[in-house]
């Protein structure tokens, strides 16, 4: 049995309806996963499952989610080991926990696409690719940044963003 983290790209089903974490935990149990737990109300799920590849879990969770909630949502799954490795690679540890963001990618982000983001950066902002994931330090300018609106699936591929505080909170849940 292994521990996994699933990150939902969006939990908005309609303009006035969001997935509540109780329903997300129930979905995980219906799929046969054990000890499902959530962190904050933004689609972070920790659970135990038999040895499976993360991609198999992504497919099962995405299909189960669509069946239960009537909407496709991209879901990124990482094993506990790969999550801890991600935690150890933060290139901006000197940044503020709510301003340092990682875009956790299903497939490694294309460096050329990251290069195309650089003209959108505001002064003091930093970006780096580590292990295929895109790290961004918004340096207190997240809401003012043109960069934020460019971090889309259409532009970068399937992925979802979490701030450093959430990354660390998920790490604590699997330790």
From TrEMBL:
Pfam families: DUF1697 (PF08002). Gene3D superfamilies: SP0830-like domains. It comes from the Bacteria. This is DUF1697 domain-containing protein. It comes from Rhizobium fabae.
